[in-house]
Amino acid sequence: MSSIHPDKVTAERLAGVQGGPQSPSVAGEPIGDGTLIEDPRVRAPLVLNDRSFGEVTDIVCGYTENKPGKWWLPAVLLCASVAGLLPLMIGFLVITGVGVWGLNNQVNWAWDITNFVFWIGSGHAGTLISAILCIFKQNWRTAVNRSAEAMTIFAVICAGIFPGIHVGRVWFAWFLFPIPNYNYIWPNFRSPLLWDVFAVSTYATVSLLFWYMGMIPDLATLRDRADRRLRLGTQAKNFPFLPFGSDHLRAYGYGVLSQGWRFSSRHWIRYETAYLLLAGISTPLVLSVHSIVSFDFATSVVPGWHTTIFPPYFVAGAIFGGFAMVLLLLIPARLLFPNFKDFLTLKHLETMAKIILVTGKMVGFAYSMEFFIAWYGGNAFELYAFLGNRVDPRLAPYWWAYWAMIFCNVVTPQVFWFRAMRTNPMVFWIVAAFVTGGMWFERFVIIVTSLHRGWLPGEWHMFYPTLVDIGTFVGSIGLFLMLFLLFLRFLPVFAIAELKAVLPQASPHPDHHEGDHGADDKVPHQDPINAAKGAH
Amino acid sequence: MAISDYFPFFPKSPPRFVAASGAPIAGALARFEDPASVYHAAETMRDAGYTKFDVMAPFPIHGID
């Protein structure tokens, strides 16, 4: 972890330019909020306005301790009532049967699996940020890792609903798991649907552990602050008719959750080791989960599904859609929460815009490669699945879904070639919304357009969603947003300890040029002879 | 914890460190405002031969272990 530089003078000095103040042209004029520095030798500050440690704590804890804005309660009530659709629709489905969805003999997977893949994919940015960017020491992840990991958990919750209910007889959903039973009924271990159960449950477990473990120090901060107010007698007022107030709940609730964390250096060593181990465990998960989801399709013999490109294509699409989902929710949060912009700077947005651009191009490449292989492979059915089922408006009834997907996923991210667009949160939010919609369409296109025309033209059926289909999907969106709003209100939205660790004043060796921790001091910075003597 | 804390009839050994007021001293706390000074204080403590000390910090200070 290298230190970041608060002001231009220090930045230039540390960038290798000798002496005191240099000409301002070295660093270039900062644009926007001051984080967009043209000079690649200068690291942009990760936290704006020279926040002190105490201010960082106050701001982040303030989101849970102070009253939220007037928007919060109506928003969470709205989302909760939309989420209420979900149990209604699922209850109706269980009572009546899967016939209440628009499925038919030909299209036997439709919105249910589309939504499953969509939600699983939406969570991928969180895992990527927390695992791979942690291992690569990308310090900018501190701005988004907590909220992106939260989104991963909530998206997996939404995703997990759909395979469970689409089996039809929900009371047999336990057949999904290889549980020993008296009838010797086992799932088919060669079926990717079983691997899916393992992949998704591993993913949910590891993501939850990662999220929770990372939160322990910050929960302890919240606990200590509530405890301090109780001891000083400045706690929040008691609830009406009850002998305790919200600070009692905080002190006990966060106290139980923080598991006796005392901020000791001995704790921190274990914490960092465990964090790194979990990052190592999650890294293959970033790639494996959506690969296995893609096997659900790729191992079948349906034209349009049976392609080898599916695993990397799905993974790139998941990261693409996941980052879009992160930004879709965090850009409004930047406006709605005080000082949020100090931690989620324009530089962070620009970095994520570049990731969206790169993964969007990967997805575009996969779309075109599918065509190439369908043509080059000489399989007439596969070529027809693409041209006749998806692309050609004269032949394909779903051409609009295909072209909506291409527009949202391939065309709209191209605006990020321009820096003015990459650094404009409004543009960013619109693109993120398009990409999120486009990624839903991608799964719809893959699933429904491949299925709706079987080998015999007599089997061809269109898929029309019913109100129950729509209600279930909208309900899952409501559930996701409700959980996210509750997270913003009750849990530390930023990793406080990690934010502090990337502040410039967190370095225990401020005199050194780059080294900010002991292990690096063995590496000679300037004078190899002195360093070899152990000058530290 | 000495054994006499659990069994009051055991003879108490006199405290090793006594404050001016006569109260026994169990330990000492110091507060530092920045990581560099706590790092150097920990170095000094270690070099002076102390082993039973700990550093509480709101974030991991690298190299302090």
Tell me the major beta sheet of chain A. Answer: none
Beta-strand segment tally of chain A: 0
**Largest interface: pair, residues per side:** A-B, 30 and 17 residues
Q: How many β-strands of chain B, per DSSP?
A: 0
String of helices and strands of chain A: HHHHHHHHHHHHHHHHHHHH
What is the residue-mean pLDDT of chain B, rounded to a whole number? Answer: 81
Overall radius of gyration of chain B:
16 Å
State the low-pLDDT regions of chain A, or none: 1-5, 18-29, 513-536
Helical residues, percent of chain A = 55-70%
Helix count from the secondary structure assignment of chain B: 2
Rg of chain A is 26 Å
Percent of sequence in beta strands of chain A = under 5%
Give the proportion of residues in helices of chain B: 25-40%
Q: Pairing-aware structural class of the strands and helices of chain B?
A: mainly alpha
- Coarse shape of chain B: elongated
- Average pLDDT number of chain A: 83
Shape of chain A: globular
What is the terminal-to-terminal distance of chain B?
A: 26 Å
The major pleated sheet of chain B works out as:
none
- Please report which band the strand proportion of chain B falls in: under 5%, 5-15%, 15-25%, 25-35%, 35-45% or over 45%: under 5%
Please outline what is shown here.
The complex is a heterodimer of chains A (536) and B (65). With 536 residues, chain A is an all-alpha fold.
Give me the secondary-structure topology:
The complex is a heterodimer of chains A (536) and B (65).
Chain A (H helix, E strand, L loop, with lengths): L7 H7 L38 H13 L6 H12 L1 H12 L14 H12 L1 H12 L9 H22 L25 H41 L13 H12 L7 H34 L11 H27 L3 H4 L2 H31 L3 H12 L7 H13 L7 H4 L2 H27 L15 H24 L5 H6 L26 H5 L4
Helix pairs in contact in A: 3-18, 4-18, 5-7, 5-11, 5-17, 6-7, 6-10, 6-11, 7-8, 7-18, 8-9, 8-10, 10-11, 11-13, 11-17, 13-14, 15-17
Chain B lengths: L2 H4 L28 H13 L18
Descriptive report:
The complex is a heterodimer of chains A (about 525) and B (about 60). Chain A has about 525 residues and is mostly helical. Chain A is built from 20 helices and no strands. Chain A has helices spanning about 10-15, 55-65, 70-85, 85-95, 110-120, 125-135, 145-165, 190-230, 245-255, 265-300, 310-335, 340-345, 345-375, 380-390, 400-410, 420, 425-450, 465-490, 495-500, 530. In chain A, helix 7 (about 145-165) crosses helix 8. With about 60 residues, chain B is mostly helical. Helix content of chain B is about 25%, strand content about 0%. Chain B has helices at about 5, 35-45. The mean pLDDT of chain B is about 80. The interface between A and B is medium-sized, with 30 and 17 residues.
